[in-house]
Amino acid sequence: MKIFITIFIISSFLISQTPCENPYYLKLLSKIEESGMSSLTEREFDSYNRYEGNCVRFKREEKNSKKNSVLNTEYNIQNNLKVQSNPCDDQTFTELKYQIEKNGLSSLSDRDWKYFQLKSGECSEYQKNNKIEKKNEEIEEALIQIEKQKLAQENQRIRNQEANSQRILNILGFLVFLWWINDVLTPEKTEFPEIDL
User: Distances in Å between the alpha carbon of 137 and those of 75, 98, 130, 154?
Assistant: First the structure.
């Protein structure tokens, strides 16, 4: 019994995968890349939509959990957002868009229309998030510029203080030199005793 439990625990760790790593989903993706969306059967298309939705939800939840995680830095979050693929560039989506522009909506099958709607929503979401990200980058860049200006001003102030200190030291040195010259060149006063006549 202990062996069975141990094997079950180990196998559960080995089998665990994200929805985006499901072998059947990956098989469907490769089939779409090779032959296009129209090569899928109705059952495969429904499965693909389900897996695609799960994968998108998983990525979104993963992104949100990373944003909320105290352990991740803002730099890592921004890099993870940039790594996310653009659903607007999906090959099938762009083909369907072109087909709609060329032949109108009536040229799409129900399955193609569902796919187009799904990707259209993802594309809108991606563009909205991308605008927010660009705005955050602009704000961050402005803050960096402000910090650079403050740093330059502080460096200039320090250089001015150092220059003023050097001027004061030069003046003091010159005064000491004058005092020394005056002391060396001035003969000592010798006092002669007064003689009473």
Answer: 11, 32, 10, 25
**Residue-by-residue DSSP string for 92-123:** HHHHHHHHHHHH-GGGS-HHHHHHHHHHHHHH
pLDDT digits (tens, 9 = 90+) for 96-153: 888 888 888 788 888 888 888 888 888 888 888 878 777 878 888 888 888 888 888 8
Residue 189 neighbours by CB under 8 Å, 6+ apart: none
> Are the C-beta atoms of 147 and 95 separated by less than 8 Å?
no
| Identity of residue 84 | Q
Q: Where are the domains of the chain?
A: 1-84
Crossing angle (nearest 10°) for helices 74-83 and 110-185: 140
